[in-house]
Write a structure and sequence with these properties.
This protein is globular. The strands form three sheets. Strands 1, 2, 3, 6, 7, 10, 11 and 12 form an eight-stranded mixed beta sheet that branches. Strands 4-5 form a two-stranded antiparallel sheet. Strands 8-9 form a two-stranded antiparallel ribbon. It has 420 residues and is an alpha/beta fold. Helix content is 50%, strand content 15%. It folds into two domains: 211 residues, D-Maltodextrin-Binding Protein, domain 2; 202 residues, D-Maltodextrin-Binding Protein, domain 2.
Length: 420
């Protein structure tokens, strides 16, 4: 009997050890940028772990800029490092990640519900995240460029919100003349050779119906591109935009408008909270938001921004990683990010959520802009496309090149990139 009892005790101990080993949680490593509210992300991952005790998520926080964020991912994924399991990628990156084999296609994990699952997102984001018929990433955070304006100044001068860039220029000159403030800019936009300058180039070009790439081939309308660059140069020439606009980066526009030195600003959604909540804001309660102006005979169009959840092709835990990003792409998570972080949802329905409407009332005006925003050229060689456009847009605004010279180089560089 003693021998039997001992044998049973050993068996129970061994069984207990085996169970403990089987219960070891799957370790997932997530990577987000510093601008994506890692404090909120960390709490969301904690909620996920509480609901999924078999998974532990470790969060790594990266750089605050998209370029530095991408450089880190390039380094890790080029080395086929399995350290990262899930990460956020910029809206312009899915085609590059698909071509490089860095992102795990999600189709087989979504299975038969793929179409119904993706239908909850805004169509532009579905299109940007679907490459070659495969879902490469799931929309996480939406964004777009907006026209912010000094509501108090437009009211003071009885001016309507401009529908065209010509109307904006006339309104700005009138207010500048009336305010007698030599530091008051009519409009601020991004002219520095950063990613924002790509959108600066595209906004008037798109408004006129221009395309860059269609069906993988160069589709370039020089006349429309020249009209767009000419419009920006005209704003500088007439003193509506400042002479050194070629030195203005994304956050420079936000800071100048926030300081009360700009009438109209072309800026991303993140700027709103700064305008209304920062202690040093000179424009709190004085800001309106609207669609961007159109070119004569064209349509209002915005440039799409945002971030997407992707799963590393080198992850050792792909099924668990996919489950995590599916959970993070839920409407409930989007609502939390909107209410607590003022991030634009990628699902139209979340904009109408009562909690969202109460926390961020201006999202009611933001939805039409976000929903109609266009994705920058979807191509695996986007970096080369971006470099060609932003560098040459900057040189035109700096007076180094004529629009014709810059367009020659843009066309030639993109054509070469597409042939590779």
């Amino acid at each position: 009997m003693r021998r039997l009892a001992r044998a049973l005790a050993i068996a129970m101990a061994l069984g207990s050890t085996g169970t403990a080993q089987a219960a070891e949680p799957v370790q997932l490593h997530a990577y987000v940028g510093g601008q994506q509210r890692p404090d909120i992300m960390r709490e969301l991952f904690a909620e996920y772990m509480a609901a999924h005790p078999g998974v532990k998520v470790t969060l790594e926080v990266g750089a605050a800029s998209s370029d530095l964020h991408q450089k880190y991912l390039n380094m890790v994924l080029t080395a086929k490092d399995p350290t990262l399991d899930v990460f956020l990628i910029d809206i312009v990156r899915p085609a590059q990640f698909a071509a490089a084999g860095w992102a795990e296609p999600l189709d087989r994990y979504l299975g038969a519900e793929r179409e119904s699952f993706m239908s909850r997102f805004l169509p532009g984001y579905v299109a940007a995240d679907t490459i070659g018929g495969h879902v490469i990433a799931l929309p996480a955070l939406a964004d777009a460029l907006f026209l912010y304006y000094r509501k108090d100044l437009l009211d003071r001068y009885g001016a309507p919100v401009p529908a065209t860039w010509e109307e904006l220029a006339r309104t700005a000159r009138r207010i500048q003349a009336g305010e007698h403030d030599p530091q008051l800019q009519g409009v601020s936009f991004q002219g520095k050779a950063v990613e924002g300058a790509v959108c600066t180039f595209l906004l008037p070009y798109w408004s006129l119906g221009g395309e860059i790439i269609r069906d993988g081939r160069l589709s370039f309308d020089r006349a429309k591109a020249e009209a767009g660059l000419g419009m920006w140069l005209g704003l500088v020439r007439d003193g509506v935009a400042k002479a050194n606009i070629s030195e203005v980066a994304t956050d420079d526009t936000r800071k100048e408008f926030q300081a009360g030195k700009v009438i109209f600003a072309v800026a991303w959604g993140y700027a709103w909270n700064h305008f209304q909540q920062d202690a040093d804001s000179q424009v709190a309660g004085k800001v309106g938001v609207a669609r961007l102006p159109a070119m004569p005979g064209g349509e209002s169009v915005s440039c799409m921004g945002g971030w997407n959840w992707a799963v590393s092709a080198f992850s050792r835990h792909k099924p668990e990683a996919v489950e995590l990003v599916r959970w993070m792409a839920r409407p409930e998570v989007s609502r939390e990010l909107a209410v607590r972080g003022s991030f634009h949802p990628a699902q139209a329905a979340v904009y109408e959520d009562p909690q969202v409407r109460q926390a961020v009332p201006w999202f009611h005006d933001a939805l039409p802009v976000v929903a109609s925003a266009r994705a920058r050229p979807v191509t695996a060689v986007y970096k080369q496309v971006s470099d060609a456009i932003r560098i040459n847009t900057n040189t035109v605004l700096a007076g180094v090149k004529t629009p014709s010279e810059a367009l020659d180089e843009i066309e030639q560089r993109i054509a070469r990139a597409l042939r590779r």
